[in-house]
Write a structure and sequence with these properties.
The protein is of the alpha/beta class and 316 residues long. Helix content is 49%, strand content 11%. The chain is built from twelve helices and seven strands. The strands form two sheets. Strands 2-1-3-4 form a four-stranded parallel β-sheet, sandwiched between helices. The chain has a three-stranded parallel β-sheet with strand order 6-5-7, sandwiched between helices. Strand 3, helix 5 and strand 4 form a beta-alpha-beta unit. Helix 4 runs parallel beside helix 5.
Length: 316
């Protein structure tokens, strides 16, 4: 199990090395900004989707484009792009799910001209039929832009990719359940399991996670720690996880955009795969960037905390 956890840590800590490895194999990389970039579509068209969620970097050049109050995830994404951290990527897809993301694409075109910007415009009223149609139209725009980069689209290939991603979703949901009863897995290791998923092909990551699940199921859990739920957009900072581990806290569930929220919803496995992918987005919920008139996410956090007997919720 330590070998698997070490491999996931290596990938999570060194995404550039992972990217260089794919480029050396002749593969094309498409960067995926947060939160719900249509990875299945990118995967189906022959590219390797790689997460681009910024990083722990000093903000200098990004300030030429961004006011100080903008989200640090987006500012650091732009800073890394300007500094050449993503060189070699064929494009970046940036969705429109918050006010900051709506603006960063235009800045990206001027600040990082070597990596084409592809917009993905989502509707907030996503559940009605017109919302699904709007989402599908956004996907069709992404398809046209990826075709310019050499990608080829077919419904058959997209269905195959949906199956790959649904299998990965199932593995991530299962490991999330198991981590709730295995306090010996540290907060830092838990973060690596989720973060590494953004930098590997889903086939490779699923294989590692399924192997980890097998080891966890065969292992007797260690002594209990103080159980908590963690909530936010991004909680992968090493210093934060070190504090949680130092204080003996055990994350029994998360409401984190970069972690379990990614894997709650599967796309239907149907021949009309593009419609199915649009329906997947319509079915998503319990997320701060998705319109929810009833504010169901709050109840979901409370219910999950109770179900997993958490003693507190840490909101990041």
């Amino acid at each position: 199990m330590n070998d698997i956890l070490n491999k996931l840590h290596e990938v999570a800590a060194s995404p550039r090395a992972q990217m260089d490895g794919y480029l050396a194999q002749g593969k094309k990389i498409v960067l995926c900004a947060p939160v719900y970039t249509p990875e299945e579509l990118i995967h189906a068209m022959g590219f390797v989707p790689m997460g681009a969620w910024g990083g722990d970097v000093a903000l200098n050049r990004a300030k030429e484009y961004c006011p100080a109050f903008l989200c640090a995830i987006v500012q650091s994404l732009l800073e890394l792009g300007i500094n050449g951290a993503y060189e070699g990527a064929s494009a970046i897809v940036i969705p429109s799910l918050c006010d900051t993301l709506k603006t960063v694409g235009e800045n990206w075109k001027y600040a990082v001209p070597s990596i084409p910007f592809i917009p993905m415009t989502y509707p907030q009223n996503r559940k009605p039929a017109y919302g699904v149609a709007y989402t599908k139209a956004g996907y069709e725009r992404v398809i046209r832009d990826l075709e310019k980069l050499g990608g080829a689209f077919s419904e058959e290939k997209l269905l195959d990719s949906i199956k790959v991603y649904n299998r990965h979703n199932a593995a991530m949901r299962k490991v999330n359940e198991l981590l709730a009863v295995h306090p010996e897995i540290t907060a830092a290791q838990r973060s690596d399991i989720f973060k590494s998923a953004f930098f590997m092909t889903k086939e490779e990551h699923t294989e590692l996670v399924e192997a980890l699940i097998e080891k966890l199921e065969a292992q007797t859990p260690a002594a209990e720690k103080l159980p908590i739920v963690i909530s936010g957009i991004l909680t992968d900072a090493p210093a934060l996880n070190a504090i949680l581990d130092e204080m003996g806290l055990h994350i029994v569930a998360d409401d984190v955009a970069a972690q379990s929220r990614q894997y709650c919803t599967d796309a239907p496995e149907r021949d009309d795969a593009l419609n199915a992918l649009a329906e997947k987005f319509a079915a998503m919920g319990n997320c701060s960037v998705l319109y929810d008139q009833e504010k169901n996410r709050v109840k979901w956090i409370v219910d999950t905390a109770k179900a997993r007997t958490a003693k507190g919720v840490l909101v990041v």
